[in-house]
Amino acid sequence: xxxxxxxxxxxxxxxxxxxxxxxxxxxxxxxxxxxxxxxxxxxxxxxxxxxxxxxxxxxxxxxxxxxxxxxxxxxxxxxxxxxxxxxxxxxxxxxxxxxxxxxxxxxxxxxxxxxxxxxxxxxxxxxxxxxxxxxxxxxxxxxxxxxxxxxxxxxxxxxxxxxxxxxxxxxxxxxxxxxxxxxxxxxxxxxxxxxxxxxxxxxxxxxxxxxxxxxxxxxxxxxxxxxxxxxxxxxxxxxxxxxxxxxxxxxxxxxxxxxxxxxxxxxxxxxxxxxxxxxxx
Length: 281
Description:
By secondary structure, the chain is of the alpha+beta class. It contains 4 helices and 18 strands.
């Protein structure tokens, strides 16, 4: 009864920490749960498939702390994360009756010195990288997506470590051995990847959009300063059934630059840039 009373007074702030602490507890202990009095529980939200790679303890902790602060700042309602966003099982999604324009400065101001750079906007989505401490390493990202002129979805998730050779996707049909590829989710910060269904994906970088089809070099480019129309990718995109596996050099079709740097490369699209480790099959 006391918990119900507290929830009634501050539902947004109570639900968010509880959800996060529960998820972390389940992941970090294998001790059997103590017997509890049988109780009726609410239906669980549909499970999301874990993404390849794994969040370290540090990034999971950073994401949890940031999610609590962001949730308190925007006073959002916790909702199930859409499967199309392909977030990890620990991601927290919040619905807010505020526009993205009003939420961007609010969230960045709340994170202050822990925000790494500024919002990177592509279409109706914006992404902000953040660390647990001021000047600390990147630990999480905040994804802000406009649902309407006065509604938004905010997602907070941990930055996952690069997949090790044992964890990378099995060689999919159509990839060229020895050529570098990148997972669509690893492009967060410079390119927003959206699954359209029927093996089609849209890659947005600034005002440019590239629509690609798994198994085909043919792609359609629109918007931006580049010439719109049909383009041909250097190699065909592929998928492991969950992620888009895109040829690294194909990002040049979006006007992005790819600069090698040892085992990693720097991908720059407009003013935004990230470092990543490509997959070579």
